Amino acid sequence: MLDRLTLSLVKPAVDAAAQWLSKRGFTADQVTLAGFALGLLAAVLVASGHSLLAVIPLLANRALDGIDGALARLSTTSERGAFLDISLDFVFYAAIPLAFGFAAPEQNALAAAALLAAFVVTGTSFLAFAVLAEKRGLKSATYPSKAFYYLGGLTEGTETILCFLAMCLWPEHFTGLAYFYAMLCVLTSATRLHAGWKAFG
Q1: For residues 55 and 168, is the Cβ–Cβ distance under 8 A?
Q2: What would be the CATH architecture of the domain defined by 3-199?
Q3: Taking 90 as the threshold, does the pLDDT of residue 178 lie above it?
Q4: Which of the listed residues 9, 106, 134, 165 has the most CB atoms within 10 Å of its CB?
Q5: Distance between CA atoms of 181 and 159, rounded to whole angstroms?
Q6: C-beta of residue 117 within 8 angstroms of C-beta of residue 94
Q7: 153, 191 contact by CB (below 8 A)
Q8: How does pLDDT run across 121-159, given as a tens digit for each residue?
């Protein structure tokens, strides 16, 4: 829901960072892998009970996730790069709730499982729509720079990161936050299923 606004706000800084990295010979795939490594570091910190320290690598992961796409567009975008980017994004999104489950299993495990299940449903509806949209040659007017059809919803990347940040800042409230966000993900999946039903009818 907020991704379009967020992307427009950070675009100047993202483009400037991509230009700087491009001039120094960095590739989009290198930035993607560096961002993923920082995301895993955030998950390890959460799992070890240091969720507040995880905020910095978590934000760095998201910053690099924006920069890698801008960097790719400065040269030649590749399907391999797009595949790597979205695949590692989904691993990162799964790693954070799982890490909270490891940090306090008796308190958090069930809520983490519920959130992960909700992520599976939202991710499946998102990717299934993208595959069929590509098959039909559909393009997103809202997110034209994406490598594939990006179907928005109530819970997009921005909302997910805000939720993760809240969990890191207030880990004692992880259970409530996880159940609440899982419910929002279910609503998002319902809207995406409805969109797919109409689009591919």
Answers
A1: yes
A2: Up-down Bundle (1.20)
A3: yes
A4: 165
A5: 9
A6: no
A7: yes
A8: 999 998 998 888 888 888 776 766 666 777 778 898 899
The burial of 32, by beta-carbon neighbours within 10 Å (0-12 exposed, 13-18 middle, 19 or more buried), is given as: buried
| Backbone region of residue 138 per phi and psi (left: phi > 0; alpha: psi in -120 to 50; beta: other values) | beta
- Amino acid (1-letter code) at residue 22: S
Angle between helices 55-74 and 28-47 (to 10 degrees): 170
Q: Quick one: which of 112, 122, 106 has its CA closest to 179?
A: 112
Burial of 163 (0-12, 13-18, 19+ CB in 10 A): buried
CB 6, CB 59: distance < 8 Å? no
State the pTM of this model: 0.90
What are the structure tokens assigned to 9, written together?
């706000």
